[in-house]
Design goal:
With 114 residues, the chain is an alpha+beta fold. It has two helices and eight strands, in the order βββαββββαβ. The protein has a four-stranded antiparallel β-sheet, with helices on one face. A two-stranded antiparallel ribbon has the order 2-3. A two-stranded antiparallel ribbon has the order 5-6. It is globular, with a radius of gyration of 15 Å. The termini are close together.
Length: 114
């Protein structure tokens, strides 16, 4: 499946140490997005941040955190992203989920890849 034009981006901001069913939450989100047939998902690890708890998490050596911020970003058509939102609602207990419109300019895989 290739995307082009208008799409939605959903971003889930969670903690690196958050888990669901014994698996990292960010990994569970990616695997559920894959199983749902979404166009793609990526996980980005933050080096510093804070959320609703107002506790700062950082990679700086003197205050090394085991719960760094993580962003899981998924982009697909509006219909497919909106259909996936209940899954995120089920999985993300603490964190932030945002949704925004994007314009897809380029979406291609490697030649011969499935």
């Amino acid at each position: 499946m290739r995307l082009h034009g208008n799409a939605l981006r959903v971003t889930a901001y969670v903690g690196e140490s958050d888990t669901v069913h014994g698996r990292p939450l960010y990994s569970e989100i990616v695997h559920r997005a894959h199983a749902a047939g979404l166009a793609g998902a990526s996980v980005f690890r933050g080096i510093e941040g804070f959320g609703a708890s107002s506790r700062i998490h950082t990679t700086r050596l003197l205050s090394l955190s085991e719960d760094l911020p993580v962003a899981v970003v998924i982009v697909d058509t509006e219909e497919r992203v909106r259909a996936f939102l209940p899954v995120l609602d089920e999985l993300v207990g603490e964190g932030l989920v945002t949704l925004d419109e994007v314009a897809v300019l380029h979406h291609r895989g490697r030649e011969g890849s499935a």
